[in-house]
């Protein structure tokens, strides 16, 4: 049974380990940082410029969770919306390597690290992606590994 | 040198492995789900009720990244704002176990799994927290392990 929403998108069988997805870039404004922080991470170093200057971060910086959310959005726009994605399973090894400051532009790549079929659900596969997110100076700011469900064209066990 | 912002808060030495932090609860509305999804995770099953009903999730469900953000906010309110926290380092083993649907109330605990001093920065310690996030039916919806920096009262290496 084909899925009318996803039938024309790339499926599990169309992906290859080592494929590199260019995530494009996103610029991070003061308003983005403070509005996200008010909702999810209300620390002075994400909300108040003076407090931020005196903190470890040395200036107003985005919540690490926001950096992750923006990276996810870049993956949706550049990859997940073009494949037969069924949703995320989880993340591992997320590391915040450097703060993302007001005015920074972040971007980077996601590389397919692993492809395996679900044992319990032969109609699905799992694609594992390694993120390398950097700022405009090419300095790494975040890495993480995402596991995402994807439909298989042919549900049988791979040969 | 004491930090005037954090000196009256709990420091590294005041925490113990096994301490359980009650995170309280947060209710998740349709408006919260769709506004987060529009910004970070614009999939039909997070935005459109009809498409969501026909998806794997069976109804409008929050972005997993939003469930994580709401859990982080509960940790800030109930723990991080009361300790001498210097910011997050990263997390690992995040698993989305069940969808969070419109009208669900999520909550749970974070348990101190590990406490260690930084080798390179004797003024800091690292507290590792295991999240167990459940819905109103006590069904697990998300787990993850967060590593967070915290000031030590006494910077010397622990005996």
Structure description:
- The structure is a homodimer of 159-residue chains.
- By secondary structure, chain A is an alpha+beta fold.
- The first copy, chain A, has one domain: Hotdog Thioesterase (Thiol Ester Dehydrase, Chain A).
- Helices cover 22% and strands 35% of the residues of chain A.
- Chain A is built from 4 helices and 5 strands.
- Chain A has a 5-stranded antiparallel β-sheet.
- Chain A is elongated, with a radius of gyration of 18 Å.
- In chain A, 38% of the residues are buried.
- The model of chain A has no long low-confidence stretch (mean pLDDT 93).
- Chains A and B meet through helix 4 and strand 2 of A and helix 4 and strand 2 of B.
- Strand 2 of chain A pairs antiparallel with strand 2 of chain B.
Describe the global form of chain A: elongated
Number of strands of chain A: 5
What oligomerization state is this entry in?
homodimer
CATH architectural label of chain A = Roll
Provide the descriptors you would attach to this structure in a database record.
homodimer, 159 residues, alpha+beta, Thiol Ester Dehydrase, Chain A, five-stranded antiparallel sheet, 4 helices, 35% strand
């Amino acid at each position: 049974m084909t899925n009318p929403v996803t039938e024309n998108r790339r499926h599990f069988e169309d992906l290859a380990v080592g494929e590199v997805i260019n995530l494009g870039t996103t610029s991070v404004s003061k308003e983005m940082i403070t509005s996200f922080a008010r909702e999810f991470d209300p620390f002075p170093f994400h909300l108040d410029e003076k407090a931020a200057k005196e903190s470890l971060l040395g200036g107003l910086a985005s919540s690490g969770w926001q950096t992750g959310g923006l990276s996810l959005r870049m993956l949706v726009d550049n990859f997940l919306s073009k494949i037969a994605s069924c949703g995320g399973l989880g993340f591992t090894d997320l590391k915040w390597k450097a703060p993302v400051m007001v005015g920074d532009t972040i971007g980077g790549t996601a590389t397919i690290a692993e492809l395996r079929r679900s044992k319990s659900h032969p109609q699905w596969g799992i694609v594992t992606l390694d993120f390398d997110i950097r700022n405009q100076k090419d300095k790494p700011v975040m890495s993480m590994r995402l596991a995402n469900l994807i439909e298989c064209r042919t549900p049988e066990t791979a040969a």
